[in-house]
Design brief:
- It comes from Aegilops tauschii subsp. strangulata.
- The protein has about 210 residues and is α/β, with parallel strands linked by helices.
- About 50% of the residues lie in helices and about 15% in strands.
- α2 links the parallel β1 and β2.
- The N and C termini lie far apart (about 65 Å).
């Protein structure tokens, strides 16, 4: 909550704990799904929401970010350029991190977000699908998941995932806190990955390939 309030102050947004704050950090290009965000913003801005974007790239999208900020002064901020400290403050202060990438072999921002207790909403592709487990309130052992991975990659599906996340944020605070805590306790270190690689090597020795 402190990180969120400080971020809202820094960006000149109304300081409101109750409004969901969505963030995007990345290159402004086709791969990152910026065109979908651009198409979704007019509808999303009808909601009680705040949205901040940090990135640089295609001059058309840079110009769009600036004009969108002037159109939605109390709801939208577009920071053209890149700053590591600012990216960390956005990741720490947002409630939701949006990553509608068309393809993402690994993806790092969703991992950073979960460590910060920020809930990722991602396109279910590549490393995003591998690392973000869609929220399930009726899991076998109670509530499960660390965010939302939507598919296929359409504006409607992305808006559905965002609205579901925003509704959970507003109306189901214990569930939201569970999402935050499960994300913060996930182990995405190389130690964990190395154990998985070792297991694959062990399986390979147990079931060796047939050679003629």
């Amino acid at each position: 909550a402190k990180c969120k309030a400080e971020l809202q102050k820094e960006l000149g947004l109304p300081v409101r704990e109750d409004v969901p704050l969505i963030g995007f950090i990345g290159r402004l290009d086709y791969q990152k799904g910026i065109d979908l965000i651009k198409m979704a913003i007019p509808e999303l801005m009808r909601e009680d929401v705040q949205f901040v974007m940090l990135g640089s790239g295609d001059p058309i999208f840079e110009g769009w970010m600036r004009s969108t900020e002037s159109s939605y002064k109390d709801k939208f901020r577009g920071w053209v350029g890149f700053s590591v400290p600012v990216s960390h403050r956005i990741t720490a202060g947002c409630d939701i991190l949006l990553m509608p990438s068309r393809f993402e072999p690994c993806g790092l921002n969703q991992l950073y977000a979960m460590q910060y207790g920020t809930v990722p909403v991602v396109h279910g592709t590549g490393g995003l699908r591998d690392t973000v487990e869609t929220f399930n309130p009726f899991g076998a052992k109670g509530e499960e998941g660390t965010g939302w991975a939507f598919s296929p990659l359409t504006v409607d599906k992305m808006l559905w995932a965002l609205r579901t996340a925003m509704s959970t944020f507003r109306e189901h605070k214990p569930s939201w806190e569970g999402l935050m805590k499960r994300g913060m306790t996930k182990d995405h270190t190389w130690d964990h990955a190395a154990e998985q690689y070792e297991q694959i090597f062990e399986w390979a020795f147990v079931d060796q390939p047939y050679v003629m």
